[in-house]
Specification:
The complex is a heterodimer.
Chain A lengths: L5 H34 L5 E6 L14 H10 L4 E3 L5 E3 L2 E8 L2 E6 L13 H13 L14 E4 L4 E5 L7 H4 L25 E7 L4 E6 L12 E6 L3 H9 L5 E3 L3 H7 L5 E7 L2 E7 L12 H8 L4 H8 L4 E3 L21 H10 L6 E7 L6 H14 L3 E7 L5 H5 L8 E7 L5 H9 L3 H5 L10 H12 L3 H16 L4 E14 L2 E2 L15 E2 L2
Chain B lengths: L1 H28 L4 H6 L5 H11 L5 H14 L12 H36 L4 H15 L2 H15 L15 H27 L2 H8 L4 H28 L4 H6 L5 H10 L3 H29 L12
Helix pairs in contact in B: 1-13, 5-8, 5-10, 5-13, 6-8, 7-8, 8-10, 10-13, 12-13
Classes of the chains: A alpha+beta, B mainly alpha.
């Protein structure tokens, strides 16, 4: 056998190894060089990371939390929901009810779109039509009827309805104004708006948007030149991106992430009450004679739930227990009572009512609220303490929980669910949840079968009352009537939580879980 | 050769057709309603019916399938429900990101795994080989979401030299590429080692060695030459699989590729988007497989495409 000359071979191999190592180091070094500084936002750029993909800057189909922040920085409405959930004027300088079925509106003088064209009354009329025509619009559902726009002069018009719509100023906050010629009965993918920013670049598929200051903006000049909007669906990725300084603001963070970020250098947390009520809602489609059809049983079951422990230990103070049938932040809210924890009393009451061997099936969709599974597991324990068995059924997003909720797939007893009022009004939530009628129930379009004609009549009366004082009285009566039916075993109001880097200021988180970008500033 | 290519093209197109047809049926059998995802859980029955009519979801499945076939042959798979844009356009916007990541990951895998496998095969039963072997087993065992989070914490937060997410700069490619490549390197290097070890023990190599052929020639020309086809096939197959989206890595690194897109499409039951994603990724995967087949004669001159092997 021929012996190969090893010495020369080894030295060549060593050379190759050395070359490979050097190449690796050089390659990594140059990549790191290009990654480091350019991966961070520049001194005049604010970077936001959203938890859901912003597929457009229109809200006909899509309006959620921080999306509102971005949408409203490009397109605006006649009004907006202010920090105290009251309507504030934006494109309108006057928005007044001048008769029970008539509102008079005057557009601000000199307002223009980012392309310099003026905002016209025709744009408002067209926007109303487009929102009305689009299929699947969540906005349309909040309007009892769409008013007619009747021009008075170049800037003034009347909005006329058949019946009184006393909350029209709040409802109009959801109608974003676009030039009439560009508006369509669908979610607009491009086009101009009147907001403080304009879109310079976007990738709809990736959910990224680049915004630049609108030089034609009618209001105070925005403090930040550029805004980058990114879509980071995974919460751990958003937290890491914030910690690394790659993004400046992340919103809608869970209690776990809040704990992780609290006290970290360079990071600040902001909290606000929210417009959302999360509930453990009873199934109101139970036949007469079923324990849950008895209000006394529903009330007794609520005594089994240790709300304080859920708030402190499971939800780590990221929520507050509800003290009514709507969140306290809503305009028109009325405090109706508190949930009491008394398992002994619950056991005694159930025994007194002859309720034995009760098994409750609880259903919910994953992600309906933060720490949903932990809450449900705690409920199993709490109901178990009063001798009530429980069965949990969790649905994945996109699954068929709606069919279950409507009772078309199977029976259940309690539903973990959340409901928001984007108008900032208690009446919106009350109409959506508690104003069920037998007609609506025929098609299973009530909220979990909740049909109480006396409650519905009170809500109806409140919603059409034009006098604000009387309306508040009627709202209070309606909310008390709802509370007395014990619709929920427990309910809580989540806090909106946002985390931001220290270099950002002027972020005023509102109960809508959004903030005006125009007020934000970056440290020099 | 031409006949072979045409035959393989035909087989590939049939595979794509059967794949998209199967997906068409399966997604309609799965629970969930696109109309609910589109209009929200609080939509009324009337609103849901209107949405179903708008999207043609109220038509019998066979009729929907016929419409789908017509769209398939025109290359227009309809509007994505959630993006309100042509589904093919939405997927096409994402595809370059996935292609970039998959290409970077497979290149890094090839560059590291082949020399590593050869190195291991040249040092059987040594302490160093054992150490590297343990590392490759560890690489195979680590779930990529864990690897990704560790890399992110290490190199985006503690030593912030790489971006944590997205693809705003080329540096953003580094961590996701390494995350994917760690598993692939572990698998491919062990495969190379196995193939090379078998070839080193083969009689033809003993003969070549006895004829005084240099060691480097024995390793790279003889043994590697004969190991090339299975290794190349494995790399190609891995690459084709990555084109379907590296879902976990894309989610961890917020990589805007088709993997995260299809997760979203499935969650919202966005049928046109699911179908478009499957169509495009299946076409690419079939194309890659065809290219691999066409490359065989280059790797081994004994291979004659389209001809039966003779004894």
């Amino acid at each position: 056998m021929t012996v190969l000359p090893q010495g020369r071979e080894i030295s060549r191999r060593r050379l190759i190894q050395f070359g490979a190592a050097a190449g690796f180091l050089l390659g990594t070094g140059s990549l790191a060089g290009c990654a480091g500084p350019t991966g961070l936002p520049g001194p005049s750029t604010l970077t936001l990371a959203l938890n859901r993909s912003l597929v457009s800057l229109d809200n006909k189909l899509n309006q959620f939390d921080a999306a509102v922040t971005v949408q409203r920085s490009v397109r605006q409405g006649l009004t907006a929901i202010g920090p105290e959930t009251e309507p504030i004027l934006v494109l309108a300088e006057r928005f007044e009810m001048t008769a029970p079925t008539e509102w008079t509106v005057t557009l601000r003088e000199g307002i223009r779109y980012s392309d310099g064209s003026p905002v016209k009354i025709e744009d408002v009329a067209t926007a109303l039509k487009m929102y009305q025509q689009v299929q699947g619009s969540f906005v349309a559902g909040f309007f009892p009827e769409f008013p007619q726009v009747v021009p008075v002069d170049e800037r003034t018009f009347k909005m006329v309805s058949k019946k009184p719509v006393p909350i029209l100023d709040s409802l109009m906050s959801m109608i974003l104004i676009t030039p009439a010629a560009q508006n369509k009965p669908e979610e607009l993918q491009d086009g101009v708006g009147t907001g403080p920013y304009v879109v310079t670049k976007f990738n709809r598929g990736a959910g990224t948007y680049s915004l630049a200051r609108n030089e034609n903006y009618w209001g105070p000049k925005p403090g930040i030149e550029n805004v980058e909007v990114r879509f980071l669906p995974e919460e751990s990725s958003r937290v890491i991106a914030l910690r690394s300084g790659e993004v400046d603001i992340i919103d809608s963070i869970t209690p776990d992430s809040r704990e992780q970020l609290a006290g970290l250098p360079g990071v600040q947390l902001k909290e606000a009450s929210s417009l959302r009520l999360n509930q453990i809602f009873y199934n109101f489609r139970k036949p007469a004679g079923h324990p849950l059809a008895d209000v006394r049983v529903r009330e007794a079951l609520s005594w089994a739930i240790d709300g304080e422990a859920l708030v402190k230990d499971v939800l780590v103070d990221s929520v507050s227990a509800a003290e009514g049938v709507t969140p306290g932040s809503l305009t028109g809210y009325h405090k109706t009572g508190t949930y009491t924890y008394d398992p002994e009393k619950a056991k005694a009451r159930l025994a007194e009512l002859g309720v034995e061997d009760l098994t409750l099936k609880i259903i919910w969709e994953t992600g309906e609220f933060a720490s949903d599974t932990s809450v449900m597991e705690a409920l199993v324990e709490m109901f178990g303490n009063i001798g009530v068995k429980t069965e949990l059924q969790q649905f994945e997003p996109g699954g068929n929980i709606l069919a279950w909720r409507q009772g078309k797939q199977g029976d259940w007893d309690l539903l973990g669910n959340g409901f928001s009022s984007p108008t900032g009004l208690a009446i919106t939530m009350m109409q959506g949840m508690y104003a069920g009628t037998p007609e609506k129930e025929a098609t299973r379009d009530t909220y979990q079968g909740y049909v109480f004609p006396e409650v519905q009549a009170k809500i109806q009366a409140a919603s059409s009352e034009v006098d604000p004082t009387k309306r508040q009285e009627l709202l209070a009566q309606a909310q008390q009537a709802i509370w007395d039916t014990w619709p929920c075993a427990w309910a809580f109001v989540p806090k909106s939580v946002l985390a931001q880097r220290d270099r950002v200021s002027g972020v005023n988180l509102a109960p809508t879980n959004s903030y005006p970008l125009v007020d934000a500033r970056l440290e020099a | 050769m031409t006949n072979y290519i045409l035959k393989r093209l035909g087989q590939g197109l049939l595979t794509v057709f059967l794949t998209v047809s199967t997906v068409f049926i399966l997604i309609r059998m799965a629970p969930g309603d696109p109309a609910v995802s589109y209009a929200g859980p609080l939509a009324t029955t009337e609103q849901l019916d209107a949405v179903r009519e708008q999207f043609g979801l109220n038509k019998p499945v066979l009729e929907q399938y016929w419409i789908f076939l017509q769209q398939l042959f025109t290359g227009n798979l309809g509007q994505s429900y959630s993006f309100q844009a042509p589904a093919m356009v939405v997927v096409a916007e994402r595809m370059p990101y996935t292609l970039t990541l998959a290409t970077a990951a497979i290149l890094l895998t090839a560059v590291v795994a082949i020399p590593l496998g050869v190195w291991m095969s040249r040092r059987p039963d040594t302490g160093r080989e054992f150490g590297v072997n343990v590392l490759t087993i560890a690489g195979q065992s680590m779930p990529d979401f864990w690897t990704g989070i560790m890399l992110l914490t290490g190199f985006a937060v503690l030593i912030p030299i790489f971006p944590a997410s997205g693809f705003a700069t080329w540096g953003g490619l580094v961590l996701p590429t390494i995350t994917i490549a760690i598993l692939q390197i572990a698998l491919i290097s062990r495969m190379v080692r196995r193939e090379m070890t078998a070839n080193f023990a083969a009689p033809y190599l003993t003969v070549a060695r006895s004829r005084g052929v240099r060691n480097s020639m024995l390793t790279w020309r003889y043994a590697m030459g004969n190991s090339a086809i299975p290794v190349f096939t494995a790399l190609g197959t891995r690459f084709a699989a990555m084109l379907n989206g590296v879902v976990v890595v894309e989610v961890v690194f917020a990589w805007p590729g088709v993997g995260s897109l299809i997760v979203r499409a499935l969650e919202t039951r966005d049928y046109p988007l699911i179908q478009a994603t499957v169509l495009l990724t299946a076409l690419l995967a079939v194309g890659v497989q065809l290219l691999i087949d066409l490359a065989y004669p280059l790797l081994d001159p004994r291979v004659r495409l389209g001809k039966a092997a003779t004894a």
